Amino acid sequence: MSKISAIDLIRKTDRLTVGIEFPLDNDWSPDGEARRLADGRQRGVPDLSAHTGLIRKIDSLGYAALWIRDVPVFDQVNMGDAGSVYDVFALLGFLAGITRNVALGTAAVVLPIRHPLMTAKAAASIDALSDGRLILGVASGDRPIEYPLLGIDFDSRGQAFRDAVGYLRAAWQEGGLPVDGQRVPSLDLLPRPTQATIPLIVAGRAQQDEPWLQANMDGRFVYPSNVDRLIAQATDWATATGGTRPFISAFHLDLIDDPDAPAQPIRFGARTGRKALIEHFRTLRRGGVDHMAINLRQSARPLGEVIEELASEVIPALDDNKAALAA
Q1: Longest dimension (CA), the chain
Q2: Residue 297 and residue 26 in contact, taking contact as beta carbons nearer than 8 Å
Q3: In a 10 Å sphere around its CB, with 0-12 CB exposed, 13-18 middle and 19+ buried, how is residue 319 labelled?
Q4: Which of 12, 179, 232, 257 has its CA 20 to 30 A from that of 288?
């Protein structure tokens, strides 16, 4: 087992780190919508034809993480978003094989709709295949069709989430698997995770109260919000956890060619030039935010261009030491 945690890839003492959120397309832009219609794709189904090359580019350019959502079913009426299309663990296995540097994060696996033994096995496999780069974001789920579709009780999902967390922690350790509350030494889960323990990051609140989250989660991933709210949430989390566990959020970005263009709000983020984006991220860093997952589905520019500009101009500017020297 490695002493290094995948958390170390996204939480740095001298900078806010940046990741990219799947799917890797810009189908929510005007040009993307036109391409969707020309391709005959349903609304909400992304164009993934270029994502392998973009994944390799992101991995090579200094990004900290790739983030994948767990969307088992395309609910066209109620949600209208197919996510990354592929099964979350199958996609993670693919990513483990074609990347070498980035953390592989889920935002988030819906624990109550899977048996925890199978989740533990899949997560341990990904961690081993990626040499210890998995961050398992977990949640109780916000898509109402999933529970009745699977014949699982929706109202008890909070307790099911807590039970699953306990099972995962136990299954990844030596000493046998839990059966009816007792560990059976003759039963083992293989492979063992590469990390001493796979980090569990809660997305949202998962039907839990704050003391439970603070006591049991290795980090927190909150939904996009305004600066004041994010800083207040980050401050509360740092105070409760001793400032040792990462605070993460997401940002929908339409990066404008003009670096001096001021920020204009869009849903869950902004249409902005890079200078305003850098200042925004620096403000969040000063407020205690450790990592931002950027979603590019609303980007008007080609994704390759945006990914390269973020890597060459934005990520280096977030280094606190370099920023101080420049000032």
Answers
A1: 63
A2: yes
A3: middle
A4: 257
Residues 6+ apart with CB under 8 A from 205: 213
Q: What is the per-residue pLDDT across 205-250, written as a single tens digit (0 to 9) for each?
A: 999 999 999 999 999 999 999 999 999 999 999 999 999 999 999 9
For residues 246 and 201, is the Cβ–Cβ distance under 8 A? yes
Check: pTM over 0.70? Answer yes or no: yes
DSSP 310: I
DSSP letters for 59-105: HHTT--EEEE----S--TTTT---TTSS-HHHHHHHHHHH-SSSEEE
Radius of gyration of the chain (CA): 20
Beta bridge partners of 266: 269
What secondary structure letter does DSSP report for 185? Answer: T
Specify the 3-state DSSP secondary structure of 232.
helix
Kind and range of the H or E element at 268? none
Query: How many other C-beta atoms are found inside a 10 Å radius of the C-beta of residue 218?
Result: 19
Q: Which of 10, 32, 112, 24 is nearest to 69 (CA)?
A: 24
Domains of the chain: 7-326 (3.20.20.30)
Residue 322, pLDDT > 70, answer no
Residue 4, Cβ density class (10 Å: 0-12 exposed, 13-18 middle, ≥19 buried): middle
CA–CA gap between residue 317 and residue 276 (Å, rounded): 12
Measure Cα distances from 173 to 109, 178, 197 in Å: 20, 11, 8
How many other C-beta atoms can be found within 10 angstroms of the C-beta atom of residue 33? 13
Q: Does the CA dihedral 275-279-284-285 come out positive or negative?
A: positive
